[in-house]
């Protein structure tokens, strides 16, 4: 047995724009840093509801929403990622989150995650539609129909609820969020590098 | 006469934590990029009120607030900046914003800005207090008492209102924000590098 390396839990929401930016680069960035990622789809809906929001803050605050889409367009262009804003926004990501949860954390979750985010934000298709989820997973070489079926498994549903509860317990209020083994919380695609640095060094590099 | 170089307008609010991180490095970062900064203190209060908020979102949403202070502590440590959370938070930054507005944009505004932010967030003193504003400006080698007096000048008050109106017109909803000559808006200390790149290249560098 080898000792496990530094670990980082990545919480992401399937309807979250900045989660798209983060998950598409997460596996490579973590590998470069020598950090093992726990891939944790979770649901922001219950967290937003507890704050009194019934939709995304990007819809509730139009100036912030307009800015977010422009910022996403600029950053996706710089990263070479396609961007087609989904309609409706935010999508209901429950089924897609459950389908990912049905996969092994250290196996096919990264691939399934990227496929579903690329479908949601790179093509604008509605991932609330089981056929869309199935096609995205098939396209990634996974068994789409079987995973859509397994998404309804009570154990899978419970595991997704547990991931959301763990996020709340860690202080998560938005997505993506990253939590180190010593409990440090980092919020946003912008903080991925900080989170990886903390996971390996226990501190941020001096600027 | 030499042709003016690329320009960037920096909107900052004296009570804003992430504005502290940005303004302390703004002059050096802009000089390295060859960009001329228009230093624009403005007021977030009217913008927050229009969104239905009567205080900072960091107070309205406790999980977000707890995270922000921890994030600030980590990032200030990495940047070698002192951090003492002001009480009350947010401070009323009106007087300090007016005192900076009384100075020439291309003259002493950068120095006055850094002095007042360092007092507000590096010592936790309340910049709503005229004596605190005066001392901070004196400490930066400026005429504190005279600037506090000039803050009450109707032309200075009007200039600060105009800066806030200009921010709203540019789509600003938070601080710090950066606006390029071609109208691109960048929000947050995290976007300063993007803003400088856009000001000089008209695009973000590929990642």
From TrEMBL, chains A, B:
Parts of the chain that traverse the membrane: none
Segments forming domain DSBA-like thioredoxin: 8-194
Assigned EC number: 5.99.1.4
Keywords assigned by UniProt, alphabetized: Isomerase
Family classification: Belongs to the GST superfamily. NadH family.
PANTHER family on file: GLUTATHIONE S-TRANSFERASE KAPPA, GLUTATHIONE S-TRANSFERASE KAPPA 1
Protein name per UniProt: 2-hydroxychromene-2-carboxylate isomerase
């Amino acid at each position: 047995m080898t000792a496990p390396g530094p670990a980082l839990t990545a919480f992401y929401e399937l309807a979250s724009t900045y989660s798209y930016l983060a998950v598409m680069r997460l596996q490579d960035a973590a590998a470069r840093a020598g950090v093992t990622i726990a891939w944790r789809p979770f649901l922001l809906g219950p967290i937003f509801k507890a704050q009194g929001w019934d939709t995304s803050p990007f819809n509730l605050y139009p100036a912030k929403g307009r800015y977010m889409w422009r910022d996403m367009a600029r950053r996706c262009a710089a990263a070479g990622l396609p961007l087609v804003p989904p309609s409706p926004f935010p999508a209901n990501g429950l089924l897609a989150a459950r389908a990912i949860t049905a996969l092994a954390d250290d196996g096919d979750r990264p691939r399934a995650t990227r496929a579903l985010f690329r479908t949601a934000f790179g093509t604008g298709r509605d991932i609330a539609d089981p056929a869309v989820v199935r096609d995205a997973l098939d396209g990634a070489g996974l068994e789409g129909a079987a995973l859509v079926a397994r998404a309804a498994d009570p154990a899978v549903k419970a595991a997704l609820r547990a991931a959301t509860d763990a996020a709340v317990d860690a202080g998560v209020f938005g997505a993506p969020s990253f939590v180190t083994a010593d409990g440090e919380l980092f919020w946003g695609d912008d903080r991925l590098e900080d989170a990886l640095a903390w996971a390996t060094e226990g501190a941020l590099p001096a600027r």
